[in-house]
Amino acid sequence: MNAAVNNTIAFQGVPGAYSNLSCRAAFPDMTALPCPSFEDMFAAVHEGRARLAMVPIENSVAGRVADIHHLLPDSGLHIVGEHFQRVNHQLLGVRGAKLADIKTASSHIQALSQCRNNLRSLGIKPVVHADTAGAAADLAQRGDKTAAAVASSLAAEIYDLEVLKPDLEDAPHNTTRFVVMAQEPIDPDPAKGPIITSFVFKVRSVPAALYKALGGFATNGVNITKLESYMLDGHFSSTQFYADIDGHPDQRLVRLALEELSFFSREVRILGVYPASKFRQQD
């Protein structure tokens, strides 16, 4: 891998997206590579155009990022880190626009949901767009003084837009969790700090299978920080679970918990073992 690729991190979206902002915050010395879709972002790493990928997982207000849990297990990449990005949405308008004249605001559906109450109080109609920064770019091109975009301060800077109302998000805790992915897994030393292990699993189709599968985490004192289910292949009877736990698989209690999980599951696949973000210590 050449020096340029080794110093490149891919993200989904266009310049000015919150994923772009996260790349800057977490890896300020790396070059951020915009990609049209999550699939293109993963491909950039597989094809050697980028060393890392910055992948949004969930938001503290809007919840899970749509489709991402389906894409992660099949991405062929490994989680090697995590980043928590505080999200401050800005209501952006073209130069000369006034807040009182704004009728519509375009943005990604997650951003709009995070600003739902404030948009309603301003009497502004939300309009769904493919992404936040793309909405800002389109607005700058149209020049419509009655329209706005909900996007980042970085997007305002890139597309020469005015901030008509800062910090538009409804909740002051509005934060998005990202995972950093690479072609090769890492094996961090638990003696150097807290570790997160992420994995997916499918339970056997028997009564109390999930209860029994997770029992090992309770009896071994292993903390599950996230557990989420989602349907597979459109079948209501076919469910996969995504989980994050505290600890390293080589630690005795974690190993015992995972062994019990495997006994009651049809498949367990570890997506990554990586250092926990210091942001978790603030919770």
TrEMBL record:
<keyword id="KW-0028">Amino-acid biosynthesis</keyword>
<dbReference type="Pfam" id="PF00800">
    <property type="entry name" value="PDT"/>
</dbReference>
<keyword id="KW-0584">Phenylalanine biosynthesis</keyword>
<dbReference type="InterPro" id="IPR008242">
    <property type="entry name" value="Chor_mutase/pphenate_deHydtase"/>
</dbReference>
<feature type="domain" description="ACT">
    <location>
        <begin position="198"/>
        <end position="275"/>
    </location>
</feature>
<keyword id="KW-0057">Aromatic amino acid biosynthesis</keyword>
<dbReference type="InterPro" id="IPR045865">
    <property type="entry name" value="ACT-like_dom_sf"/>
</dbReference>
<protein>
    <recommendedName>
        <fullName>prephenate dehydratase</fullName>
        <ecNumber>4.2.1.51</ecNumber>
    </recommendedName>
</protein>
<keyword id="KW-0456">Lyase</keyword>
<dbReference type="InterPro" id="IPR018528">
    <property type="entry name" value="Preph_deHydtase_CS"/>
</dbReference>
<comment type="pathway">
    <text>Amino-acid biosynthesis; L-phenylalanine biosynthesis; phenylpyruvate from prephenate: step 1/1.</text>
</comment>
<dbReference type="GO" id="GO:0004664">
    <property type="term" value="F:prephenate dehydratase activity"/>
</dbReference>
<feature type="domain" description="Prephenate dehydratase">
    <location>
        <begin position="8"/>
        <end position="183"/>
    </location>
</feature>
<dbReference type="InterPro" id="IPR002912">
    <property type="entry name" value="ACT_dom"/>
</dbReference>
<dbReference type="InterPro" id="IPR001086">
    <property type="entry name" value="Preph_deHydtase"/>
</dbReference>
